[in-house]
């Protein structure tokens, strides 16, 4: 199984974050002049601190629905026609899927910059961004093809429904700041992080569209790109908490702040705002005139903001609410009226007292009562005699020892004890050839956070790893002291055909010798994302090796190209 070093493919704009046709026409006619407060007429984040916008031709390419690019991409609906370019929803007829397409003339002043931005963002390979699929210059046209996510919802639409509850706002700022940290490490900036550039998928994940490309299409640049993107994330968080845009002008369907008041803290705009998140928004916007609370330092880069989010106490999701079932109501049939309406003035079945029948008073009735009483007395006597006989028989058997049962056995079922969870004191990556996979990610497998993980590299051959190249990859866990290990639960990041994991008892965090010489605890194979291993009998050990020998095929992810790979998000040992 050879390791794959293919570069991943990534992201761009989904094409839907543009103004309406009327707004586009107005913006084109106005030459995208800035309003008095510095916010662009197309609703963009205000240009400041070195942001620049280059000139562009007056018209976009004159194309129509049904036009086909590269004999493959059929244009279906023009989403935007603005500033010399157009954006379309199209159909990839080869793969039968919807895609987005940005189009502009090859002689457009920004054509070279758009191509360069698209190709650079495509190399990032981070699934948190919308993926660039193609970037081509052909027949006097430049076009960029990107993913189209029909099941995703724009943040614009989410905020139109109301402010976010704290856990959802926390997820927003956490995921977006982490994604932009990864982008800036590769030298890529967004410069147009608006609510319409953020998409929330049906699984609750946030994806960013238009990395580098949206700014290149509009000719937006900045001398301080990290600070610009950080302030934009702060604006998104502010809007999520207050449902207000933190500038004086209205934008993206949100009302701006009152004129002349300046940037006030979120809890002064809306009651009940989460204090920690409100302070975080002000720290991100501190360079834009905000005053950071409690003298906390301003966040000037996405990485600083991401670390500040991580340092906050985790915000738990709200508890689900259940509606109590309605009280049980008797039907008219159960009430005795059989569905017939009750005449006026007559008592209902609910109000009528139940009168018992009169006791038997005749000679026959008295005889019947005495007969029943005699039968009851006889039955009680017979039962008492049988019970006494049984007790005497058991006592005699116990005294002569022939059928004596040891105390605590036989009559009582064995008591099953609850499995004991063994906390992990430390861990270290292990391999036979000393080739590292992700040593920094080992701690993520026992931090209790399902969103963090340790991952392997991508391999060309699989699912089974080749013993002549790399017999397996794994992690050795330290349980702190010798424990009785009987089972393990391992949460995997990728499902598919298939993953094989074996537990071994080792003598240290860096065991020597062959895998086959280590005591085996348990082994299991799965095509799911959860793997439970149970030993035939418990094994006492302090160190446990989780050894992966087969991995499913997975496409492009944030770290590598397609291939056979796996990642562990959580490991628990019990005894």
Description:
The chain is of the alpha+beta class and 575 residues long. It is built from eleven helices and 25 strands. The strands form seven sheets. Strands 15, 16, 17, 19, 20, 21, 22 and 25 form an eight-stranded antiparallel β-sheet that branches. The chain has a six-stranded antiparallel β-sheet with strand order 3-4-5-6-8-7. Helix 4 (166-185) runs antiparallel to helix 6, helix 4 (166-185) runs antiparallel to helix 9 and helix 6 packs antiparallel against helix 8. The longest helix is centred in the middle third of the chain and has 38 residues, at 363-400. The relative contact order is 0.10.
Offer a concise description of the structure.
With 575 residues, the chain is α+β, with helices and mostly antiparallel strands.
Any chance you could write out the topology, listing elements then pairs?
Elements: E1 3-4, H1 21-29, E2 52-53, E3 68-69, E4 73-82, E5 85-92, E6 97-105, H2 111-122, E7 132-138, E8 141-147, E9 153-154, H3 155-160, H4 166-185, E10 198-200, E11 206-208, H5 213-218, E12 220-221, H6 225-242, E13 244-245, E14 255-256, H7 266-269, H8 275-284, H9 302-311, H10 332-335, H11 363-400, E15 421-422, E16 426-430, E17 454-455, E18 458-459, E19 473-492, E20 499-506, E21 520-526, E22 530-550, E23 553-554, E24 563-564, E25 567-574
Parallel strand pairs: 13-14
Antiparallel strand pairs: 1-18, 2-12, 3-4, 4-5, 5-6, 6-8, 7-8, 9-10, 10-11, 15-25, 16-19, 17-25, 19-22, 19-25, 20-21, 20-22, 23-24
